[in-house]
Amino acid sequence: MNETQAPEQERDPQPWIRLAELAAAGDVAALEGFVDTIGPSEAFRALSRLEPQQREQVLTTLSPAEAADLIEEIPDEHAADLLEQIPAADAVSILSEMESSERADVVADLEEANAEAIFAEMAPEQAEEVRRLAAYPSESAGGLMRTEHLAFGENVTVGEVTAALEAAAESVPAEEVNLYVVTPRARLIGAVDLRRLVLSRRSVTLADLLAPPAFVLAGTPLDELITFFDRHECLSAPVVDERQRLLGVLYRSAIDEALAERSERERQKTQGIVGGDEIRTLPTTVRARRRLSWLSLNIVLNIISASVIALFEDTLSAVIALAVFLPIVSDMSGCSGNQAVAVSLRELSLGLVRPYEVLRVWLQEISVGLMNGAVLGVLLGLAAWAWKGNPYLGLVVGVALAANTLVAVSIGGTVPLLLKRFGIDPAVASGPILTTVTDMFGFFLVLGIATLMLTQLSM
């Protein structure tokens, strides 16, 4: 698909109207040209504004190849929603134009009944392949690999391979840099660099060119795949099963995309976005349920934080000015802690830190927290002093903010690693823990220090 999009000022402000009109008219060429012009992101936005029947009409009017190009640019969950709205035969035509890994990802997000209807329309071999790929964890070699690959027997000559490549030029992945040598039972025995193949005589057999392959098992998780690709400095690797039978090829680009998706999911979770892929065309009850699970948890956490204030009700009544600084101390500390959480989650997702490296991470965060806490504490303390003319008020809130910043970065940096080590999703749990603890400590530090200096504050 052509990714060139019209300049912002030239775009149709209501592209969904034009999309529906072209689909209703059955003008395939004009519809595909319009989709190419506005680009996949704008086309998806336009589709989301249409009625279900209109969306079906657009997708079935587009050629399967053009519809597949559009579907591949959409998050898998929403791509599955779109395919569930069209007849199974049309969905199969679109899926058949997609890369094997993308096809499996979308099918994995289909409702079971819809998936079975689609499998029934597929050729048995294709259905079996999609079922197998969809069964792999999404962040594993099997879940990320592509089944399209180049494989030949060891007695095949360079001339025969060259002829086969010319005949299948369009189906050869652009990233392919190797072809693989297998036994009659598909067992992987070697790899041949395509550049070496081109420079060899046509009568030479692949047995004379092959090199021992560096392969990965289909069940290898993403974190181990990162280490593998870094160690071998390769762009692709064959994926095999326990019997070393060649299943597909995993590309470094797929690893990078998976890491980016993981990082984005974890960022959304830390911000309280429970359904990171939510859009407003989803059923209202589904959207409400996703959001309510997070909001209900926050009610409990806020009650815990508020209980600390109740313990120091007398102090707060005596020095009302403290009420102004409680949310400031809590919020500023929380921001520092969220920065630490974000860095830990990013390093975990990229494989730059391991869950057992808690002490190293804590020491690194403490050094940053000491500097930032001191600066922020002085600034807030001076602001409080200038406002009320009482240096002791500035001392209370300044020390409280500096100390709570240390608490926040300690939690933000280490809790994600500890949660990961115990098999708990750090992206979901780190935020609530950080919020609750920094609020409680912030309130406790402000009101506790103020209680000890109540005489000076009342002057």
Distinctive features:
459 residues; mainly alpha; three-stranded mixed β-sheet; disordered N terminus
Short description:
The protein is about 65% helix and about 5% strand. With about 450 residues, the chain is mostly helical.
Task: Walk me through this protein's architecture.
The chain contains 21 helices and six strands. The protein is mainly alpha-helical. The strands form two sheets. The chain has a three-stranded mixed β-sheet with strand order 1-2-3. A hairpin with a 5-residue loop joins β2 (178-182) and β3. The protein starts with 14 loop residues before the first helix and ends with a helix. Mean pLDDT is 84; it is low at 1-10.
